[in-house]
Write a structure and sequence with these properties.
By secondary structure, the chain is an alpha/beta fold. The protein has nine helices and ten strands. Helix 6 runs parallel beside helix 7. The longest helix has 16 residues.
């Protein structure tokens, strides 16, 4: 579904990504791991179109999207939940949910019932402003889209443990639908390990270790993250 081929990304003279290749398939969670500042968010920005790459190519569902604007990628089903959620604080919960309708055909513009099965608290707060929600509730709100590719940047950051479990269940549910590819950026290895099908560790803008769940050597994975 998603294929990233040998991409570089620069911020002026500073190089943030170095020859990065990665793939993500429908019904699978691809986890990108590593410490702060190693290029994980830059990788998601590149896929979402937030920052142009300087080398390589990005293909989504067989189409080269390397030069497409973020809005065009969103219309193709790529959704990005950045760190910090970035919901609309002055809009109600219901209005925030409906803000994801823009790329959808008119007949598909409805809030799926399973949104409220996954996160019942949102149903109770539909008329509340998004900014009135707790950090964990805002993260739940940001996760309820139904894209083809879901990019998640550290969804557990600053969230209480009970909400982390809810977020994990939601990601697992979306994966198990078999239609959505998930790229999950995380520092919390235990959370990623429970959900991930494939793992890639980044250091200094490059992928320095990768494995599948079946071939995982946890000691080697932890060593790579500690470099």
């Amino acid at each position: 579904m998603l294929q990233i081929d040998s991409i570089d990304l620069h911020y002026g003279a500073a190089q943030a990504l170095r020859n990065v290749s990665l793939s993500a398939a429908a019904g699978k969670v691809t986890c990108v791991l590593g410490r702060n500042g190693v290029g994980k968010t830059s990788l998601l920005d590149a896929v979402a179109g937030q920052h142009a790459i300087s080398k390589g190519a990005i293909t989504f569902e067989g189409e080269d999207i390397t030069r497409l604007r973020p809005s065009e990628r969103a219309r193709r089903g790529i959704a990005y939940v950045p760190q910090g959620r970035e919901i609309f604080p002055l809009l109600t919960v219901e209005e925030n949910l409906k803000s994801g309708f823009a790329p959808l055909k008119r007949e598909n513009r409805s809030i799926p019932d399973d949104v409220f099965s996954l996160f019942p608290v949102l149903n109770d707060m539909l008329r509340r402003r998004g900014g009135d929600l707790s950090g964990g509730q805002q993260q739940q709100l940001a996760l309820v889209m139904r894209p083809r590719l879901l990019l998640l940047d550290e969804p557990t950051e600053g969230i209480q443990p009970s909400i982390i479990k809810d977020i994990g269940r939601a990601i697992a549910y979306l994966r198990n639908l078999g239609k959505i590819a998930v790229v999950l950026v995380e520092q919390y290895l235990d959370f990623a390990r429970e959900l991930g099908d494939h793992f890639a560790v980044m250091e200094r803008g490059a992928i320095v270790y990768s494995c599948s769940r079946d071939s995982m050597d946890e000691a080697a994975l932890r060593r790579a993250m500690a470099i």
